[in-house]
Amino acid sequence: MASTFFGLTIAYSGLNTSQAQINTTANNISNVNTNGYSKQVVNTVASSALRCYQKWGTTGTGVEAESVTQRRDLYYDEKFWNNQTALGYFDKKQYYMNQIQDYYNENTSNTGFTTIYTKMFNAMSTMQGSPGDDTVRKQFISNAKQLTEYFNQLSTKMKDLQNSINDEIKTAVDDINAISEKVAILTKQINVIEQGGGHANELRDQRALLIDDLSEICDVSVKETEVLNSNDPDMYTGATYFMVYINGQQLVDTYEYNTLAVKSRATEQMYNQSDIDGLYDIVWAKDGDKFNAVPSSSGGQLKSMFEVRDGNNNENMHAVVASATETTITIKDLSITDINEFNMPTKGQISTNNMLFTYDGFSFTTGDDGKVETVTFNLTNNINKDLAKALENKTFQVGDDVDYMGIPYYQNQMNLFLRNFCEHFNLIEESGVDLNGDDMGAFFIAKDKVDSMREHGMTEKLIGRDDLNYDSETYYWLTAENVSIAKKTDKDSRIFATTTKANYTDGVDSADLVVELQQLQRKVKLFRGGGGDEFLQCIYADVTIDAQECIIFKDNFTNIKKSISEQRMSVSGVDEDEEALDLMKFQNAYNLASKCISVFSEIYDRLILNTGV
């Protein structure tokens, strides 16, 4: 049977619970602007009823605060993380594409491609009227040099951006490692608290906020399961297993976490001809296995970095192995048959049948139409005869497929235009003689590559080796980075052909070659089926389409983020008006509990002091 003073106990339980509710409400209000904080609530239950020997059987014993927990919905968390991954992907990609777009954008400072290209041909037109005028010749040569410097600077900017992205990849890896370590530490602290019967609300908020940050970098999934007691599966242990996966690969396993590392590609591991040295690949630090940073079904900033840095629009070489020896692999059925379109590095990687090989040079053969028919790679490391035989007729590729128009793609497009333009220009020039009556060599050259090879476009049949016989012409070496004009022509404007040897006797005013050169401005197909003047239009269309796509998707996912955040906050967010109402409600409950104590106090005063004989 309940004691005489049992009513005070019941009133005290209400007073104590109301106090806990007011304290929790105060904590919510204090954290209304705290990033990542989730609303906390006091979970109350009726105290266990007391058996009494009356006809009603039991009597209530008041209320008790069972726990203080946070309001959080994993469904909305997962929706937020998935959207954040997509938003981070397009936001970062837009940032890079805007820079590339600015590089190609024509401006008012007369330094854009169209302005320079037009000025060069205008100067050529003037030279047609006065081919023997030294001043006119120097003006044309100066404009031509300005065109090559434009591409030199543009290529340098592209490489600087590639290097910047490379540094950002390392920073992203450091951020992932820091987050994984913090998540593992927080999980251990959470389990310690909750195994003791508490609820680590603030620590769970911190952990969820870290996952929010991680989801912007890469695709994230989380799995939390209870730790069961093997002897008593129904027993609540309070501990949980907490797993974090990025791009489908496990990063955190409760208290253990894996770390990533960056590994610089060696020279013989380059993917594209114009890539900078030391590009990073991401590997798992524990075993060196490669981390898949560009899975097909995910997003995140990390994926966008790799796509812009390495994106070649899948225009790397694909073929079939024709034959192989211990030291070479020869391919046929090439996806690229024009040597001017070759984007292979002089030293790089080839892959076939899920195996990687490195090469330090290659040679090629051409058919009667000038198209490349086979390419033979000189392997860095020998392979055995059985493997060489097994490789025949296997599919093959050079470098890696990255299906995005990134920096390597734009570098290669510039190289392709320049190789076609310079080859056509040089062929016309080489058919003529200069003002001294001497045979003209190449006008456009690859500086630092061919100065020792009679200032011509690269003239080697074997590429990438030091002991070469320069017996076959190819413009493979000429790139946007190294294109220039011949030094001797730059120093002496007389060394420029405006006429052929047959017409040289007509005097210095002969300009039949200049007329032919002027056709290169727009009438000769030099780039993607159009004239040279359409180069910028094609490139700018590519980059603008990608940039606009990023803007559209970024705006869409930003709006979706706002919607999901509102749904998320409707569950876990702190609302000032709601907290104000709760504060009044709990205050009234506290006052009523206090009134109960006051009433019981009067009753007991009457019972103790005013009752009796």
Distance between the termini: 26 Å
Continuous helix count = 12
Q: Approximately what portion of the residues adopt beta-strand conformation?
A: 15-25%
What strand line-up does the widest sheet have?
11-12-15-14-13-16
Structural class by secondary-structure content: alpha+beta
Helix content: 40-55%
User: For the CA atoms, what is the radius of gyration?
Assistant: 38 Å
CATH top level assignment of the domain at 317-399: Mainly Beta
Strand count, sense and barrel status of the largest sheet are:
6 strands, antiparallel, barrel
Number of strands: 21
Low-confidence stretches: 451-462, 464-472
What would the principal axes of the Cα set say about the shape? elongated
Compute the average pLDDT. 89
* CATH architecture descriptor text of the domain at 317-399: Beta Barrel
Q: What is the CATH T-level topology of the domain at 317-399?
A: Thrombin, subunit H
In words, what does this structure look like?
The chain is α+β, with helices and mostly antiparallel strands. It has a domain at 317-399: Thrombin, subunit H. 45% of the residues lie in helices and 17% in strands. It has helices at 6-30, 74-104, 113-129, 134-195, 201-217, 301-310, 385-390, 407-430, 487-491, 512-518, 535-572, 576-609, and strands spanning 40-46, 50-51, 58-59, 63-70, 220-226, 240-246, 249-253, 256-257, 260-264, 280-284, 318-324, 328-332, 348-352, 355-366, 372-379, 395-398, 432-433, 444-446, 462-463, 483-485, 499-500. Helix 2 (74-104) packs parallel to helix 5 (201-217), helix 3 (113-129) runs antiparallel to helix 10 (512-518) and helix 4 (134-195) runs antiparallel to helix 6 (301-310). The chain is elongated and about 150 Å long. It starts with 5 loop residues before the first helix and ends with a helix. Mean pLDDT is 89; it is low at 451-462 and 464-472.
